[in-house]
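hi! just following up on the protien thing from before. the input was this:
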Amino acid sequence: MQWRFTNPKFDLLPVSDLVQLFPLNEEAAFFLWDSVRAFFLPREQSLNRKSFKSFLELELDGLGVSEIQKWLRQRGLMMNDTLYLSWNQEEAMQVPGSLFVKYFDSFYYSASDDLTVFDESLNWILNCVHYHQLSYGLTLN
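and the predicted 3d structure came back as:
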């Protein structure tokens, strides 16, 4: 996962930002992945709309990074001190919300990544899928 932030072919984050990114071990990654599976359709990467009281989608095709960052800020992601990012059962990370928004295009490659983002409250979930779409749901909790 380090290649996303330290390889010049992808992105080079300043050390002051790198030290705020906390990759999680496989056990923690599985725990996070498993914690949000109930909000997904069975055997799919899509969120189940029925799990949310409010649900929004954003098609990324044709949008610039600044437009996507604005949409994320409107959802309040920058206000969170700690976000959990889960790419799969083995890869996860803890990051400040402000850095996730700032470096969104380093955390999520829309052509290949499936990424789920949430905070510890699970009051909302952001799902970023490899077919250039973001889904944001406010939970029924």
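DSSP finds six helices and eight strands in the chain.
Residues 24-40+51-139 form one domain.
cheers
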